[in-house]
Design goal:
Belongs to the Glu/Leu/Phe/Val dehydrogenases family. Keywords: NAD, Oxidoreductase. It comes from Mobilicoccus caccae. InterPro entries: Aminoacid_DH-like_N_sf, Glu/Leu/Phe/Val/Trp_DH, Glu/Leu/Phe/Val/Trp_DH_C, Glu/Leu/Phe/Val/Trp_DH_dimer, Glu/Phe/Leu/Val/Trp_DH_bac/arc, NAD(P)-bd_dom_sf. This is Leucine dehydrogenase. There is one protein chain. A 6-stranded parallel beta sheet has the order 8-7-6-9-10-11, with helices on both faces. A 5-stranded mixed beta sheet has the order 1-2-4-3-5, with helices on both faces. It has 346 residues and is an alpha/beta fold. The chain contains 11 helices and 11 strands. Helix 4 crosses helix 5, helix 4 crosses helix 9 and helix 9 packs antiparallel against helix 10. The protein is globular, with a radius of gyration of 20 Å. Helix 7 links the parallel strand 10 and strand 11. The protein has 2 domains: 123 residues, 3-Layer(aba) Sandwich (Rossmann fold); 196 residues, Rossmann fold (3-Layer(aba) Sandwich), CATH 3.40.50. The protein starts with 14 loop residues before the first strand and ends with a helix. The protein is 45% helix and 16% strand. Bound molecules: nicotinamide-adenine-dinucleotide. The site of nicotinamide-adenine-dinucleotide has 24 residues, from helix 4 and helix 5.
């Protein structure tokens, strides 16, 4: 369960709104990290938290990541995220509707400065209830996962080109952790590009199925992070790359879909010191938010594909910039995000 860290600074966000509605049983935090580029867009996460401070910290931390995700994806949104604090018990349909009606009223009160979308344990149906209350809410009915996978694949290819000088994944070994909606599609894309695929999933039947489809093999979930490979693609859980695990990793590139791949910021320097290039998750997995924006704006699939594939160009530029200034791709991405925000502020 998320606990408050010593370094949490509640004043670092542009605005944090606490919402409560005793009748609907709503306790929520809406964090708007930085609204320079436009209204804050970010998902609604719904889960138990041990305290209001822990809920605030998670919302604020995720909202900061959204600021950079949008800035790096050239999208016209600020960074935001919200969390709804639940108990351990499941809500029945009426109680859930009442909760999202109250939450929708709170979002409407913000006058368009926050646009919610789906995140862990919230659904398109919840977003529809928010919209009924007069608030904007994004969530295309279509699943963004294939587009997220396409963006991660573009990021991986660019990383391989920038770091190994190889134009394709042919002959390389790619280890995918978690072969759900994004990881499964990613495994197919890299296999079609000539890579040898290794997969792991707690759902072993699913891992076997994807291995069969891709001509790959399955390893134990406990071994996938340190398995012998060229590229490691985390597509399951957050914080799988820890300080302790870095010395045992054998890959030269990490490019995946999972948000918050690094256990803490210092892991980025550890990876750099170990000669492992980490493509920032908030750059590689931007296909999901690009998809939401595209559907909201009525883009064609061709326009969407072009914008998602541009993630690869961006990664190549970040590789160049990181070489020029020294430092990691995360450093280069954050510097680029800060530049975009500064330019927008004028
Ligand atoms: N779906 C998107 O468009 C999108 C966009 C941005 C980021 N992400 C992130 O990408 C990741 C994957 O998303 P998804 O939509 O494919 O989720 P998913 O639930 O469809 O797939 C996750 C897979 O990981 C497996 N898994 C869970 N714990 C595991 C473990 N310990 N070891 C190995 N496998 C494990 C699950 O069984 C499942 O098959 C998540 O971290 C998500 O936050 C997804």
């Amino acid at each position: 369960m998320a606990r408050v860290s010593d370094t949490f600074d509640p004043w670092a966000s542009e605005k944090i709104v606490l919402v409560s509605d005793a009748t609907a049983g709503l306790k929520a935090v809406i964090a708007m990290d930085d609204l320079t580029l436009g209204p804050g867009f970010g998902g609604v996460r719904m889960r138990p938290y041990p305290s209001a401070a822990a809920a605030m910290e998670e919302a604020a931390r995720l909202a900061r990541a959204m600021t950079y995700k949008h800035a790096l994806a050239d999208l016209p949104y600020g960074g935001a995220k919200s969390v709804i604090v639940t108990g351990e018990q499941r809500l029945d349909t009426d109680a859930r509707r009442a909760l999202f009606e109250a939450f929708g009223d709170a979002v409407a009160d913000l006058g368009g400065s926050y646009i919610p979308g789906v995140d862990m344990f919230t659904t398109p149906a919840d977003m529809a209830v928010i919209r009924e209350r007069g608030a904007a809410a994004y969530c295309a009915e279509a699943d963004p996962s294939p587009w997220t996978a396409r963006g991660v694949y573009a990021a991986m290819r660019a990383g391989v080109q920038g770091v190994l000088g190889s134009p394709t994944l042919d002959g390389l070994t790619v280890a995918v952790q978690g072969v759900g909606s994004v990881g499964g599609e990613l495994a197919r894309l890299v296999a079609a590009d000539g890579a040898d695929v290794i997969v792991a999933d707690v759902d072993t039947a699913r891992a076997e199925q994807i291995a069969e489809e891709t001509g790959g093999r399955v390893v134990d979930v406990k071994k996938i992070v340190t398995t012998q490979c060229d590229v490691f693609a985390p597509a399951a859980l957050a914080r799988v790359v820890t300080r302790e695990i870095v010395p045992r990793m054998s890959c030269c590139l990490i490019a995946g879909a999972a948000n918050d791949t690094l256990d803490r910021p210092a892991v980025d320097s550890d990876l750099l010191g170990s000669g492992i290039t980490f493509v920032p998750d908030f750059v590689a997995n931007g296909g999901g938010v690009i998809h939401e924006h595209a559907r909201a704006m009525g883009w064609s699939d061709e326009q969407l594909a072009e914008a998602v594939d541009a993630i690869g160009d961006r990664v190549l530029e970040l590789v160049e910039e990181s070489r020029e200034y020294g430092g990691s791709l995360v450093d280069a991405a954050l510097a680029r995000g800060r530049r975009r925000l500064a330019e927008a502020r004028g």
